[in-house]
Amino acid sequence: MTPLSPVIDDEWLGEMDSDLRRRQHHGLMRLLTTPTFSVAVAVADNHSARVLSVFILSSMAVSPRVLPPRKRRPSPSPTSADLNLMNSLLSLSQEISALKPLQCLLIGKSHSAINKSKLLAIVFEELLGDPVSNAFSPSSSTLLCFEEMYIVLQRMKTLIEDCSNGSKMWLLMQIPHLANSFHELTLELSTVLDIFPLQEFDPSPDVEELLGLVRRQCTKTKPSVDPKDDFLRRDVLALLDLIKKEVVPDHLKLKQILENLGLRDNSSCVEEIESLQSEIRTQIDEKSKSQIVSLIGLVRYARCVLFGFGSSTTEKPDHRRRKSLSDLTVPVDLRCPISLELMRDPVVVASGQTYDRKSINQWFESGHNTCPKTGQALAHTNLIPNRTLRNLIAMWCRQQRVPFESVGSNDKVNGVKSSFEATKMTVSFLVDKLSASPSMEAANAVVYELRALAKMDSDNRACIAEAGAIPILVRYLASDVGSEHPNLQVNAVTTFLNLSILEANKTRIMEIDGALNGVIEVLRSGATWEAKGNAAATIFSLSGVHEYRKRLGTTTRVIKGLMDLAEDGPTNSKRDALLTILNLAGDRETVGRLVEGRVVELVTRVINQLPEEAVAILEAVVKRGGPAAITASHNSIKKLSVILREGSNTARESAAATLVAICRKGGSEVVAELATMPSMERIIWEVMGTGTTRARQKAATLLRAIRRWTAGVGTNEVVDS
User: Fold this and answer.
1) pLDDT-based confidence at 498, cuts 50/70/90?
2) pLDDT band at residue 38, thresholds of 50, 70 and 90?
3) In angstroms, rounded to a whole number, what is the distance separating the alpha carbons of residues 355 and 334?
4) Using alpha carbons only, how large is the chain's radius of gyration in Å?
5) To which H or E segment does residue 291 belong?
6) Ordered DSSP codes for 296-357
7) How far apart, in whole angstroms, are the C-alpha atoms of residue 499 and residue 502?
8) Whole-number pLDDT of residue 69
9) Structural contact between residues 602 and 630, judged by C-beta atoms closer than 8 angstroms
10) With contact defined as beta carbons under 8 Å apart, do 90 and 128 qualify?
11) What is the model's pLDDT at position 138?
């Protein structure tokens, strides 16, 4: 935009005395010729000049190139009709005066801004206490000046508050921009003070002196960065560069930097990590996100090597933190049925089930052409994005104050080399601590850190496994550990669960001596339901590989442990056990073992509590099992008819498919029982009208079977082939 030479309405300025006219002209000239406020319009007459001046005054702001995106919009200024505008200015300046100056960074800038506000508060208080001012009727230009001062002060308050409440590390990285922001706001305040209509109030000499002092302070400001802040920033950047080159930073230097930022203990580092994680959500460009991730890795490493893991007597380290994704219980509808992780890119397969894109692609790449949850053969492997669910997941993440990144951006951010190297150093430090056989309390804290790291991403999972953590973690799965330190056992088995999400780690867990047996032992005799449920989820994850599924399905202890958990555990643990049983039922030989273990009777008992999972297991067992499976499932027909009438779309689909399979293999006796049930045809008609495509097809088959039986068709022709 081309700067415009200002045109000032002399008649308008003539309303003021000559001294005020000089100040206003000087202030507006400075403002209008500033590149930030250049206007590409032509001023044709005096009225346009006045409108232009009003527009520019009301548009004074810090350059968006300098000030980072604000977390809050400033409060709207009072309107021109507000007779209490001076009171609003007094209140706002007093609010700024009450703010605490920044403690570690930008100390001088924040002190200066607060001191100016204190002086202005005195000025406004004196003017409001003057009888002449109370009877004063402000002109439009005076109101305009007051409104602009209100905006500048409000932005100054917002800037100080944002710097006080955010991450210290990220504040340090933004020092040049933020220092310039303070400078620009001071210049804007100086411009407003230049045209402040003080003579209209008949002020006392003290007020004039105070206002002149503020004006002189604003004039003397310089766009400089405190050398101490600048040196500290350079030190942090140098540390990140060392870590990127795989050089372990000097611990003394690292401690000195953290102390200068006010990070002097474990809890302050935890809060700083959480603040940095919150900052990621406010950033738009990938470069800023990458830098924040690097800072998170640095603070996490520093926390481990300098301050340990908090109190060694803390039995439940997960209660030391505020909410983070690794600590939250993710709703089952938002978790991928394969990885049990929060879905990042949910997609729908041909069966209508939703999975995370990465997990289902790995499922297909391993040679499967079936739906992992229902076991049915898929007509195609096309994936349809589930945008509605993705929006719900993003909404849930915002409510829980945890970051939600798309797959592409997440991979991009996590690829930062300095962050990766910092993670490697942190993992190496943690594994060395565990190798030294620490006390159970200390081990609990270290294992929890590994659990949290393994939860985050595949790079962390690979680092932990490659550092040799798995054989060391096995010792904390033992029953004697669980009986005396149940939280340590929970943290250990949950770490195995998180590690197993990575395909390479599945092989490590299956092959490393004692690892699989340790997980099975927790499944059978874990100290808590949480430990047993996470052990079941680990087996579910391992069974994603066909070879391991067959091996796990032939292990009697696995089948028995899952059956007991599904029978007696709380709802979440039951669900984990049933989903694992369903996955194992994908192998025909395993189905025989499940039937022998009376799995049909089990799911019939829990079908009211978890209908979708229970019916899916029945479908898989009837489909792949022999006569024993059909005989066992005969008693479940009434339960299935109830699900057909009252269940969800997914459950009704599985129920219809199961009934078709039972009728096909069980013959006319099964069809007769179904046909004589009250209102069965009406229920089937409802499914044909409102069910999924597959449910409607299966319901139509059931209806034909019932009508053929009613018409007396032979036993072998009752159900279509």
Assistant:
1) very high
2) very low
3) 9
4) 35
5) helix 286-302
6) HHHHHHHIIIIIBTB-TT-S-GGGGS---TTTS---GGGB-TTT-SBPSSEEE-TTS-EEEH
7) 6
8) 46
9) no
10) yes
11) 67
Alpha-carbon distance of 223 to 208, in angstroms, equals 27
Q: Residue 241 contacts by C-beta under 8 Å, 6 or more apart in sequence?
A: 418
Distance CA 322, CA 401 (A): 10
Q: Give the number of other CB atoms < 10 A from CB of residue 627.
A: 10
Q: Which residue has the tokens 């409802």?
A: 686
Backbone angles phi, psi at 347, to 5 degrees: -135, 155
Quote helix, strand, coil % in the chain, to nearest 5.
70, 0, 30
Query: Among 50-54, 408-412, 439-443, 628-632, whose mean pLDDT is lowest?
Result: 50-54
The one-letter code for the residue type at 115 is N
- The DSSP string of 475-515 is GGGSHHHHHH-HHHHHHHHHHHHHHHTSHHHHHHHHHSTTH
C-alpha closest to that of 178 among 240, 105, 72: 105
Q: CA 316, CA 490: separation in Å to the nearest integer? A: 10
Separation in Å, CA 666 to CA 418, 627, 697: 63, 8, 20
Return phi, psi of residue 356, to 5°: -75, 135
CA 60, CA 152: separation in Å to the nearest integer? 8
Each residue of 460-483: pLDDT tens digit?
899 999 999 999 999 999 999 999
- pLDDT score of 516 more than 90: yes
DSSP state of 56: H
| Closest residue by Cα to residue 504 from 553, 540, 461, 534 | 461
Tell me whether residue 703 is exposed, middle or buried, using C-beta atoms within 10 angstroms of its C-beta: 0 to 12, 13 to 18, 19 or more.
Answer: middle
* 3-state class (DSSP) for residue 370: strand
**Separation of alpha carbons 302 and 483, rounded Å:** 33
Whether the pLDDT of residue 111 is over 70: the answer is yes
495, 531 Cβ separation under 8 angstroms: no
Q: Which residue has the tokens 């920033």?
A: 233
Q: What are phi and psi of 673, to 5 degrees?
A: -60, -40
Q: Please report which confidence band the pLDDT of residue 132 belongs to, taking 50, 70 and 90 as the band edges.
A: low
Which 3-state string (H, E, C) describes 624-680?
A: HCCHHHHHHHHHHHHHHHHHHHHCCHHHHHHHHHHHHHHHHHHCHHHHHHHHCCCCH
Q: Which residue, 151, 164, 51, is CA-closest to 100?
A: 164
